[in-house]
Amino acid sequence: MNKRQHDNKFTRYRLMTAENEMKPVFVSATAFEASGSAAGLFEAIKKTMMEEMKVQFDKCIGVTTDGIRANTGRRNGLWELIDTELDRKILKFWFSAHRSD
Predict the structure, then answer these.
(1) Distance between CA atoms of 15 and 12, rounded to whole angstroms?
(2) In angstroms, rounded to a whole number, what is the distance separating the alpha carbons of residues 89 and 54?
(3) Per-residue DSSP letters for 73-86?
(4) C-alpha span between 72 and 94 (Å, rounded)
(5) Which of 75, 74, 67, 13 lies closest to 45, judged by CA?
(6) Using one digit for the tens of pLDDT, what is the confidence trace for 22-57?
(7) Nearest alpha carbon to residue 61 among 86, 78, 41
(8) How, if at all, do strands 22-30 and 91-94 pair?
(9) In whole angstroms, what is the distance from residue 35 CA to residue 48 CA?
């Protein structure tokens, strides 16, 4: 929770630069904006990346998240929504510190 009592969702993306180098990008989206669903989270993260961070979303080659179903769901999870939006598969990682539960 942040100081306004909003739950933040954090994800780490890997982007391909014009020089063909991988660049890590850390993105935070407030769950309030994301409405708690994978679709809402996807839109909030995409908006944050494109409008606030000025990052081209289509350069995404990988994502790291925790393992909640909103992220990893096979049909409607964040990972699948990104694959569908980009019309290709990306690398997906489940943050290791969250695998202990």
Answers:
(1) 10
(2) 23
(3) -TTTSHHHHHHHHH
(4) 9
(5) 13
(6) 988 888 776 545 456 788 888 888 888 888 888 888
(7) 86
(8) unpaired
(9) 15
For 86, how many CA atoms within 13 A lie in the half-sphere containing its CB? 21
Q: Report the predicted TM-score, pTM, of the whole model to 2 decimal places.
A: 0.76
**Which token pair is 101?**
């539960």
Instruction: Retrieve residue 24's tokens.
Output: 């890590």
- Which among 58, 61, 59, 66 is positioned nearest to 8, based on CA atoms? 66
Residue 1 has pLDDT above 50, yes or no: no
Task: Name residues whose C-beta falls within 8 Å of residue 36's C-beta, 6 or more positions apart in sequence.
Answer: 70
In the structure encoding, which two tokens stand for residue 99, read together?
């695998």
> 């660049």: which residue's tokens?
23
Mean pLDDT of the chain: 81
Q: Which two tokens stand for residue 15?
A: 């982007």
What residues pair up with 16 in beta bridges, in sequence order?
Answer: 22
